Known about the structure:
alpha/beta, six-stranded mixed β-sheet, three-stranded antiparallel β-sheet, 15 strands
Amino acid sequence: MSKSEEVSRNFRSLVEKAERKFARVRDAPLHPYGQTGLPYGHFFHKVFKAYMQLWKYQQENRAKLINSGLQRWEIGEIASRIGQLYFNQYMRTSEARFLLEAYVFYEAIFYRKYFNGSASNREIRFKELRFHARFLMVALILNRVEMVKLLVDRLKELVEESRVNFQETNFKEWKLVVQEILRFLKADSDALNIRPLRYTATYDSYPSSYPFVARYHAKRLLRFKDAILTSYHRNEVKFADLSLDTFRMLQCLEWEPSGAFYQKLVEPRDNGVVIDNSATSGMIDINLFADMTDPNLPPNPKKAVLYRPSVTQLIATIATACQELPPDNVLLIYISAPGDTLHRSSFEFENTGILGKGSHRSAPTKNQNGVRENHSSDKGVLNHHYENYLVLGPSRNRGSNMLFPGDIIPFTRRPIFLIIDSDGSHSFKILRGAEIGEPVSLFLSPSTPSYKNRSFVNDAPQLGSQFTFFLAAPLQAFCQLVDYKLANANMDILSSMEKIISESFSKWEETLCTSMDLDLAWAQLLCDPFLRRLILRFIFCRAVLTLFSIPEKNDHHLPECLPELPRVFSPYSESVQPAIIQLAAWLKVSDCFRFS
């Protein structure tokens, strides 16, 4: 056997070994609370080790492998699989380094055109299509706007070419993928082009209020390291398994990598000479991500992003997260879904065995440690805990897709920050006072969105949730509300508006940290920058929507938080209203508001 044949045989053996290991983890849940048996990290490292061994082997023996018939697409497939492993691990850990490593591999594959020549081979063409879809997801999450545009254009070309070249094959699913990403980008164009949704020191930290944050102390302070994000709406804007609403929440619960993002692929060099990448090359610098990260940034909170889970899956995930939640930590739960009400007679309620007509819960009391306790005078559960619900799936499976407020009560043994974005959100107000052990913090969206352009109300599914948009990108949400086109905005105007918001948030942050009237449910969250930013943005959202003037205005158009924030944060207060007046004046839309 010649040396080249031996090298080729060893390479194929390593490929088979890596693929077998990958098959074991292919269907593992893409979130941190879904492991079974040994921790998934153990399997990830074994799979990753196998692929890195394979990658190193092809680098060291590239010339021999080329002579033995190694194809460029084979190198591309290995690199793509490594990128997929990195991205999957990012989804399970929320560690930015994994996302950045995935981007490095995917970008190298894209610019070096490893899959070129797939026009005559259907199997390779499908590999190329899957690669572009995966790279699009990574580029979207990293907010690489120019790369996203390049990838979308290329994906459209590939799908059209495939339809012509492989007429016996149905590419309808890939046409839907193209439609999905175009719809997603249309809905999120404003947010993508203005500023990062992630926490950025330039925009989201305020020097004037920092001393108050640094000295802040409450009776109890909670750390934020865990979040569960999920949404379900018919015809919701999404790409792959990521809806627009969960995408925005995912982004605003992460740190922006502050290193200088390289704009161009760094070409490898041998003795100062640039390698010709038109040949079969497997050289990808796997340490490029070090130039894009800040080692001083704290870790991102772990996040479970659940795509259209059943209620049992969601409850199981919440239960696992609560069980693993360290002491003095809070779990954030974000749910975006439509609401509904059970239409049954009291007789039917009585005979379900779940809801008793005579059931009632006495007023909550506190034990000797000051912890809230509730006592029921009957074995049944309050009817009103199970009257209204969120719909987490198609109506044909309504029973298994109904999430009641009462389903959340068992988890209030641990600190929970619950954000409900739904037309039925206000039914979750009953959780306040029904907690078992810990006071729950609640953000409840308006039941009906408000827009100057009335056609937006009917087009709401095409825009994503207005409430979530305010929590993720308040300036962009304000402009959308008053129908101001950011694409035509003067940068000086946008800078001035950002300054108004920044100065207002700084003052509100100082007030929060010095308030003697702030409920402990909120006070214990203020030490975390992500949660503090959400509270500030809620104050802004509530003020804007309260002051916004529409003929049919009522409480259904307003968000609510429980427990209530101090009156100093009232929309009509002297500390809040001036900011909205200034923003409206800059955009010349003061007639859209009713100020006191």
